[in-house]
């Protein structure tokens, strides 16, 4: 299992500005980490869908358990 950081950004005039990040500790794969982060980000911002606050989400692998 790996650790992930998912960065959420809003594009303004074609330039992405980070509006938040979510750290996911121990996910089986990047897609599961992304889904968990989308739900957490939406919950933190009080919205139904994360896309109400951001235009894109980028997954970064931070490391894994040995």
Provide an overview of this structure.
It is a single chain. The chain has one domain: Ubiquitin-like (UB roll), CATH 3.10.20. It is an alpha+beta fold. Helices cover 24% and strands 50% of the residues. A three-stranded antiparallel β-sheet has the order 2-1-3, with helices on one face.
Provide key terms for this protein.
alpha+beta; about 70 residues; 1 helix; Ubiquitin-like (UB roll); globular; three-stranded antiparallel beta sheet
Topology, pairings included?
Layout: E1 2-12, E2 15-27, H1 30-45, E3 56-64
Antiparallel strand pairs: 1-2, 1-3
Describe this structure in a few short sentences:
By secondary structure, the protein is of the alpha+beta class. The chain has a single domain, classed as Ubiquitin-like (UB roll) (Roll), CATH 3.10.20.
> Total number of β-strand segments?
3
| Arithmetic mean pLDDT | 93
Supply the CATH class. Answer: Alpha Beta
Low-pLDDT runs of 5+ residues are: none
Shape: globular
């Amino acid at each position: 299992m790996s650790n992930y950081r998912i960065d959420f950004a809003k594009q303004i005039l074609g330039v992405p500005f980070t509006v938040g990040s979510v750290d996911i500790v121990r996910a089986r794969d990047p897609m599961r980490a992304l889904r968990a982060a989308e739900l957490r980000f939406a919950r933190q911002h009080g919205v139904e869908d994360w896309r109400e606050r951001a235009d894109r989400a980028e997954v970064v692998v931070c490391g894994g358990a040995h």
